[in-house]
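Hey, quick one: can you model this chain's 3D structure?
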Amino acid sequence: MPAFVLHRIYDIMKEKGMKDLSRIGLYGLTYKENVDDMRESPTLQLLESQEKHLGNPLKVYDPLITENEVDNQYHNLEEFLNAVDMVVIMVGHDEIRQNMDKLNGKIVLDARNIYDGPCYHL
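Sure thing. Here's the predicted structure for all 122 residues.
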């Protein structure tokens, strides 16, 4: 799945005329609290895949992760959303469900099929 998601991001960027990967944000690192092994996270696998090819420009936010797990990690949803033009919803935490209105004006790639606004799906 991670490589497919990265290809989908590139397709949307091309369609929208975006060139700056640093304006892309991934919402969610992990699917649950108290994760035993972060290496199992599909989001981290995606980040590792893109880092091998392009460096590490993608931004990341997850309300359940308070420690820095990756570069470009945010700990505040508002700051994260201000720093990105495209949000890739990797995880359906309650926080993102409760803040859907804050995604207005963003390009949304919804990998979890929870966003009811205009968006792209995998």
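One thing worth noting: The chain is about 30% helix and 15% strand.
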